[in-house]
Amino acid sequence: MSKTYETVIGLEVHVELATKTKIFCGCSTAFGGAPNTHTCPVCTGMPGSLPVLNKAVVEKAVAVGLATNCTITQNCKFDRKNYFYPDNPQNYQISQLYYPICRNGKVEIEVDGNKKYVRIHEIHMEEDAGKLVHDPYTDSSLVDYNRSGVPLIEIVSEPDMRSAEEVIAYLEKLRLIIQYLGASDCKLNEGSMRADVNLSVREVGAEKFGTRTEMKNLNSFKAIARAIENEKERQIDLIESGEKVIQETRRWDDTKEYSYAMRSKEDAQDYRYFPDPDLVPVMISDEWMEEIRSRQPELRDEKRIRYKEEYDIPDYDIDILTNSKKLADIFEEAIALGAAPKKVSNWLMVETMRLMKEASIDADDLKFSAKNLAAIIKMVDDKVINGTVAKEVFEKVFAEDIDPEAYVEEHGLKTVNDEGALRTVILDVIEKNPKSVADFKGGKEKAIGALVGQTMKAMQGKADPSEVNRILREELSK
User: Which residue ranges does the record assign to the Asn/Gln amidotransferase domain (predicted)?
Assistant: First the structure.
């Protein structure tokens, strides 16, 4: 009888915090920039330089801890994690081992209608390392220290996940919480959110965990899902053939869909941690914590409940709109400016999504303002422009966030509301299309569509289709 196995997965998620300056110095955290231009003696590990903690890092870490139901360590410390690697300028990383800032949290995930909690063991603050750039032409490696000292939080889960689907649900939940808080943009492609996967397999029903491996170099949700499936199969094959799984760190190559061993997995003692002598303990008073708590925004789960009660839009719309803080913000701002919720939702769900797909951009990269979307909706409501013209104007707003009212005025796109002029055009269309007229009078209802189309063409799209329809029927009934 063949054995059945289950996968046991825990994650270490590194998130770069969206502060203007680094964790222990005043250098910029901006992504990009020429190599080694966002650096100073502190973040390049020069002898005699001293770190000074950035208060905003603590506030963002506490905010994430509160939103993930953690206990906040009100008296926490920094430690030195010693290791020697070219991108680590001091030969140690300032991190937190003994007193991490957040502990014992949990977030709820849902997969295929089943809800469960994933527990968070801890969240700690630390500094990022620099970046090694491998030059294939000279067969050498160069170091860029722009990223060195960028503030990170590391969110360490308990091994509570059992499938790639649960891992992705957990990561998406974390990403949305952190984006809603404004603590990070969580762009996996820019490295501001990175996940290391700790995975083992065991027979179903076994109490004891199997030997785990850690997988690094995962920079998209698809890569994470593929790496999990691959590693699960690799470990099962080893066990089935009587071999042992080795505890090690493996690197995932997404193009080859293959992982290979990097090094045997270190334990904490290998890093010779000790309290950082240059940094004082961080004391988080009750007052400071309450101040951070009072600034916490409405998160996605709360928004979904409120949208259902307040706006009377379908659950499908609610899920998509709240899945991006940017879309939710545009939606709410446009409503605050007087647009009807369902109309705003339709513009975001249909036209915006279509243009995003064509331009291959995410909701976070949207440039248009809610004010200009609300203005387009108002112009349609007031019959200043028709739906076809509105779509044309919105394409310009989507791309360049132009003033839609000025654009309509400049390009002469206003609907012609002169009934006399419209009737003249309609009579001309009736005269030139005897077949469609005869078909309509013979009971073919669809024939009127052709006449409306001809009228709209003659009016260069600047007529109200419902008004054209009304006048056409009036004239044809004579």
Answer: 329-476
